[in-house]
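hiii so um. not sure if this is the right channel but i have a protein structure encoded as tokens and i wanna go backwards to a sequence. like what aa goes where. can anyone help
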């Protein structure tokens, strides 16, 4: 069992996910005679078994969990929200934007998969791979249903004997939030800052088309705050938050430069094929590689470092404006 006590009597719990990052870290935190939970995990057997084991081992009655804060709508965080709500009877809170995305992306009658397939094709992904990406996404949607009852997060949560400030930090998703405690200088930072992996910043239909700009602003927001520990949702907790933020900004700057240089009348797919050439990507990974490439290309275009045009079929090409990139 992947479970650690954190300062102040809460628990950091690694729940398995069927992805290379292996775990999503959820937090079970005391609040008077009950608990609150931050994030729930991905909806599959191994994760549900892990939770049963955690409740047994800690002798925590699931009914003593009174509130669940789901930091964003991604399946590794929100997938088990319905199951957990059934088990605990707890209220589930999300930011309004991601509450809406839950329904739009995973709800019944969703057209998100078709829109992603369309986006892929427009950016040069071959038809066969575009449809594989859509099939994979469809399967994931099925695992997300039924959706839980979700309330809009409209209050500063109270747990561990203090009130936690909600910081809206879009970029990784439009409605992602962190929970910050100034006195303790701690933040539950979800997927905003991670170590050693870097958070995926992607463009999706129906969401912000300038997520990298949003992400930069969110990082600046956190960088201005005194923080001793960031409790992250993947990898290790981070103690050198400001340095890690600088590294993340540098990582995206490098990637922007690389893509700017590659953009010599190419599609996002052609650019991504070079950037990710060292890896043999599955359709699921291609979806993220493409969405991340498009996010960087949107940034470059908005910053007037590249321009785009469409051919007669509507395929989008990218061209850098300055020939020499330093
Ligand atoms: Zn995420
Ligand atoms: Zn995550």
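sure thing!! here u go:
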């Amino acid at each position: 069992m992947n479970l650690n006590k954190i300062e102040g009597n809460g628990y950091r719990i690694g729940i398995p996910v069927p992805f290379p990052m292996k775990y999503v870290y959820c937090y079970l935190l005391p609040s008077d005679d009950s608990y609150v939970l931050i994030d729930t995990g991905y909806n599959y057997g191994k994760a549900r078994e892990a939770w049963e084991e955690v409740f047994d081992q800690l002798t925590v009655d699931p009914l003593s969990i009174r509130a669940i804060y789901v930091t964003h709508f991604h399946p590794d965080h929100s997938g088990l929200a319905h199951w957990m709500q059934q088990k605990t009877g707890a209220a589930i809170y999300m930011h309004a934007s991601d509450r809406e995305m839950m329904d739009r992306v995973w709800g019944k009658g969703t057209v998100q998969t078709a829109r992603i397939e369309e986006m892929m094709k427009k950016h040069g992904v071959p038809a066969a791979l575009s449809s594989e990406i859509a099939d994979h996404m469809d399967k994931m949607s099925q695992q997300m249903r039924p959706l839980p009852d979700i309330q809009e997060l409209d209050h500063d949560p109270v747990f561990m004997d203090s009130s936690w400030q909600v910081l809206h930090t879009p970029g990784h998703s439009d409605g992602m939030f962190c929970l910050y405690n100034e006195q303790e200088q701690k933040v539950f930072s979800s997927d905003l800052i991670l170590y050693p992996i870097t958070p995926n910043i992607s463009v999706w239909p129906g969401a912000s088309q300038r997520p990298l700009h949003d992400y930069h602003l969110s990082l600046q927001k956190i960088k201005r705050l005194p923080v001793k520990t960031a409790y992250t949702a993947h990898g290790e907790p981070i103690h050198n938050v400001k340095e890690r933020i600088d590294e993340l900004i540098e990582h995206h700057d490098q990637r922007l430069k690389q893509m700017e240089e590659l953009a010599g009348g190419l599609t996002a797919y052609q650019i991504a094929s070079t950037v990710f050439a060292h890896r043999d990507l599955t359709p699921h990974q291609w979806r993220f590689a493409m969405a991340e490439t498009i996010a960087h290309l949107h940034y470059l275009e908005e910053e007037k470092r590249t321009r785009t045009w469409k051919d007669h079929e509507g395929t989008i090409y990218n061209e850098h404006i300055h020939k020499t990139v330093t």
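oh and Residues 2-107+145-239 form a domain with the Metallo-beta-lactamase; Chain A fold (CATH 3.60.15.10).
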